[in-house]
Specification:
The complex is a heterodimer of chains A (465) and B (219). Chain A is α+β, with helices and mostly antiparallel strands and 465 residues long. Chain A contains 14 helices and 22 strands. Chain A has a 7-stranded antiparallel sheet with strand order 11-10-9-8-7-12-13. In chain A, strand 4 and strand 5 form a beta hairpin. The longest helix of chain A has 18 residues. Chain B has one domain. Helices cover 77% and strands 0% of the residues of chain B. Chain B contains 12 helices and no strands. In chain B, helix 4 crosses helix 7 and helix 7 packs antiparallel against helix 8. Chain B is flat, with a radius of gyration of 20 Å. Classes of the chains: A alpha+beta (465), B mainly alpha (219). At the A-B interface, helix 1 and helix 2 of A face helix 11 and helix 12 of B.
Chain lengths: 465, 219
């Protein structure tokens, strides 16, 4: 009970955010900058931070009537200047073939100049702006989706929200658009938020919408953890730079990665939401406390501090001292079998087993189907074989293709049996382990492979991981 | 009555201020504090401070809270319905609200007549001011509806209703009224109370629920 209370003090709530961080650190002028997309774009660009290129802006109905539509490129994004929550944004991906007055949207539907005009009229009227004040519409270059993110994203483009305080990036979250969110990377609209380890840029836990925990992207088998975000350090540097430029002491920066230009700032947020704490299963207050009051002179120093302080620091220290990698009880591994055939699976790390075993099904996938087939023809049981001299016993097995030896396996459901072993390369956390693995039917078990002590000497196991 | 009336209250009354009015005005800081507390400590947002406050007083002024609640729900329901009806017209804000107000007013009028024909005279005799207050609720509702969507607007409306009902029972609590009549200065205690609430930086009750997983699983 007391523990829970203590933990709750590490979490940033609305009251504390408004009173202790936004009020003292985000001046009105700076807040206005964040709410004005065109202005923040201009100032960020002037100071050398990457932003999507502005194509054109439309301020009045007159300008709309005289607008030269042919100067628009094949793909672009149309946005209201003071829009919020991703409302009122139209993205087109290319011109309709054979027509110069129509473009194609993400859902393959057509949008004509007349439709665009109508939409812009609504933007100018203020239909999408805060408190419905008249607004400005602008066109900007469309960012191109990185190949890495393609399978994880439903339409739209994912972005990375980084909270920066006192030049230090303190927490980050990858936001993935879903079908529900309509291609928008907004958690309130049903997007996915994935926590990120600050030191490595590798994703950890994930939530969908306002706070339901998930482990896989809905309707796919893709795990939300373990995604390594490219340009990680550049992203943090860009976020910290944005804070320096914007003068917002407590800032949420949204950064997308463009296929060509790399990390690009999408938006500044003077009142960043608090759900990022749920996605990361970590509290902001705790992190804010550790860096408030420090004098941090440069962006690179701030980024270094963020990575050192808020990454999986303990683990890294242990790894440095012992020279061994810390792993959990279940890890993703890549197996390479015959003729370079590879399969990626989740492996159970089992220090209770001496050796590594894989499922017969998995052995087949790795190119050992012949061996499995031949082995299944052998009818002698352990009882038949155990008293035979070693040589004779080997005689029964040695004709199996790719077999390296046999091993006695005691198994809860198969009893004691002789099993063939084969050579497989296991790659775990970028370490390559050449292993002799026993083949046994594990189809009734959760993991198709267990890795035993013999192949674990380069690792330390953290059962809580 | 055996309660002792404070001299200051007696003074107001001899100057011709009605007793009811004095009590309502003294209740105002208490209800306002309740709303501030609900927002900052409990985490119930409602439509700001003005709307729940004025709705509470509208409830106090209708004959029995049930008519008040009925009118409130009717107004919200019409507000939601009209959003769908008016959507295809793509109107600007003020004309849209004006149309909504027209419909709400007409339907309330119909309601009152219906109450009369069902021999529910209590409804028809509700004074005009609480009804007007309720009708203006539509604007608040529509503003939120446009900015944050139907669901949020509905949640905020229900939160407003909850706070107003609590406010209603507090303001018509006879022991509290007796206490205020005896010690009217006690309302000044709401000031230090509000200073404390205004400096409160702890988690709101609703945030304990929102962050329950983080609280449980943080190291």
């Amino acid at each position: 009970m007391f523990e829970l209370f203590k933990n709750s003090r590490k979490i940033l709530g609305m009251n504390s955010r408004n009173l202790e961080f936004i009020r003292p650190y985000n001046r009105l002028k700076a807040k206005r900058l964040a709410d004005d997309k065109l202005l923040s774009k201009k100032i960020l660009k002037k100071n050398g931070a990457a932003v999507p290129k502005l194509i054109a802006k439309i301020k009045t109905l007159d300008e709309l009537e005289n607008f030269d539509w042919q100067k628009l490129p094949h793909s672009f994004a149309l946005k209201p200047n003071r829009g919020f929550g991703g409302e009122g944004i139209i993205v087109v991906y290319g011109k309709k073939k054979g027509r110069d007055d129509a473009w194609i949207k993400a859902d393959r539907s057509l949008i004509t100049i007349d439709d665009l005009k109508n939409h812009i009229r609504n933007i100018l009227d203020g239909s999408y702006s805060l408190s419905n004040t008249p607004d400005v519409a602008f066109f900007e270059e469309r960012l191109q989706l990185l190949k890495l993110f393609k399978p994880y994203t439903h339409k739209g483009i994912p972005d990375i929200r980084v909270i920066v305080f006192n030049k230090v990036p303190i927490m980050a979250m990858l936001r993935l658009p879903t079908k529900e969110s309509g291609g928008k990377a907004n958690l309130q609209q049903g997007a996915i938020g994935v926590g990120i380890d600050m030191a490595t840029g590798v994703t950890t836990t994930a939530i969908i919408g306002k706070g339901k925990f998930i482990e896989k992207i809905p309707d796919t088998r893709l795990s939300t953890s373990g995604i390594r975000i490219p340009y990680w350090k550049d992203i943090l540097e860009l976020a910290s730079t944005a804070q320096e430029i914007s003068n917002l002491g407590f800032l949420g920066v949204d950064i997308a990665i463009d296929k060509e230009y790399g990390p690009t700032i999408l938006e500044l947020n003077a009142r960043p939401g608090l759900s990022i704490q749920v996605a990361n299963l970590a509290g902001l207050t705790e992190r804010l406390k550790r860096i408030s009051g420090l004098k941090i002179k440069t962006v690179s120093k701030g980024v270094r501090m963020g990575m050192d302080l808020f990454g999986g620091e303990v683990e890294e220290e242990v790894e440095e001292i012992s020279g061994r990698k810390v792993i959990g009880t279940v890890e993703k591994v890549k197996l390479t079998g015959k003729d370079g055939k590879t399969v990626e699976v989740e492996a159970k790390i089992d220090t209770g087993a001496g050796y590594t075993s894989i499922c017969t099904e998995l052995a087949r996938e790795l190119g050992f189907e012949k061996m499995v087939e031949e082995y299944e023809k052998i009818t002698q049981t352990y009882a038949d074989l155990k008293d035979l001299p070693k040589k004779e016993r080997w005689g029964i097995y040695k004709h199996l293709p790719d077999i390296t030896s046999t091993r006695i396996i005691v198994h809860s459901s198969h009893g004691i049996t002789y099993r063939p072993t084969i050579k497989v390369n296991i790659s775990m956390h970028n370490w390559l382990i050449p292993a002799k693995v026993a083949v046994i039917d594990r189809s009734h078990l959760k993991y198709p492979i267990i890795i035993g002590r013999r192949n674990l000497n380069k690792f330390l196991i953290d059962v809580k991981k | 009555m055996e309660i002792s009336i404070s001299p200051i209250i007696r003074f107001f009354m001899t100057e011709g201020v009605p007793f009811e009015t004095i009590i309502l005005i003294l209740m105002l800081p208490i209800i306002a504090t309740l709303i501030a507390f609900m927002r900052q400590v409990v985490g119930i947002k409602a439509f700001g401070i003005y709307t729940p406050l004025i709705i509470t007083f509208a409830f106090l002024a209708t004959n029995g809270i049930k008519y008040g609640i009925a009118i409130f729900l009717a107004v919200i329901f019409i507000g939601m319905l009209m959003r769908f009806v008016l959507k295809p017209f793509r109107l600007l804000y003020l004309p849209r609200v004006a149309i909504m107000l027209t419909f709400v007013a007409l339907i309330i009028l119909f309601f009152l007549a219906l109450g009369g024909s069902l021999q529910r005279t209590g409804l028809a005799s509700v004074s005009i001011f609480p009804i007007l207050i309720m009708i203006t609720l539509v604007e608040k509702f529509v503003a939120v509806q446009i900015e944050k969507g139907n669901k949020t607007a509905l949640i905020l409306a229900l939160e407003t209703l909850v706070i107003s009902i609590i406010g209603f029972y507090i303001a018509s609590w006879s022991s509290l009224i007796k206490f205020l009549v005896t010690y009217p200065w006690a309302v000044l205690f709401t000031i230090p109370l509000n200073i404390a609430i205004g400096k409160w930086t702890g988690l709101r009750l609703s945030e304990y629920i929102r962050f329950r997983q983080v609280i449980k699983r943080i190291q």
